[in-house]
């Protein structure tokens, strides 16, 4: 379990990365990205950024590649915005929990429709 400091830093990273990705990365391959959450190591030297991307599998993979290529730039910008001794090394991963939630919702709706019809 993370301590309060790591939780605060993770929260700051999440907010800062969300705005940086939206405002500063101007790559046409970048899809609609949401920073879902950030998991940071206790020594604050590396962080895994979980993102959700709207679109098909190809769009998600392209967006992940764009973010991986921009990781150094994002790390620098985060370091400027959040004044820390060390800026965490950023690693991006897809978070497909929203897709799974959507699929579960569709299944539940189908079951409810069958119950109402039958």
Spell out the key features of this protein.
118 residues; GMP Synthetase, Chain A, domain 3; 3-stranded mixed β-sheet; 4 helices
Total separate domains = 1
Q: What overall form do the CA principal axes indicate?
A: elongated
Structural class: alpha+beta
The fold-level CATH name is GMP Synthetase, Chain A, domain 3
Please count the helical segments.
Answer: 4
CATH top level assignment? Alpha Beta
Number of strands: 3
Largest sheet: 3 strands, mixed
State Rg: 17 Å
Low-confidence stretches: none
Q: How widely separated are the two ends?
A: 48 Å
Question: In CATH terms, what is the architecture?
Answer: 2-Layer Sandwich
CATH homologous superfamily (4th level) name: K homology (KH) domain
Estimate what percentage of residues fall within beta strands: 15-25%
Along the chain, the helix and strand elements come as HEEHHEH
Walk across the major sheet and give the strand order: 1-2-3
Oligomer: single chain
Helix content bin: 55-70%
What is the average of the pLDDT values? 88
């Amino acid at each position: 379990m993370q301590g309060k400091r790591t939780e605060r830093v993770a929260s700051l990273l999440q907010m800062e990365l969300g705005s940086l990705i939206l405002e500063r990365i101007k790559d046409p391959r970048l899809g609609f990205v949401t920073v879902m959450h950030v998991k940071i190591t206790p020594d604050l030297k590396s962080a895994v950024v979980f993102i959700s991307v709207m679109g098909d599998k190809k769009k998600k993979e392209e967006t992940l590649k764009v973010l991986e290529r921009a990781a150094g730039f994002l790390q620098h910008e985060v370091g400027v915005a959040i004044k820390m001794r060390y800026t965490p090394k950023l690693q991006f991963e897809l978070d497909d929990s929203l897709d799974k939630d959507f699929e579960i919702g569709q299944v539940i709706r189908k079951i409810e429709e069958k119950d109402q019809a039958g």
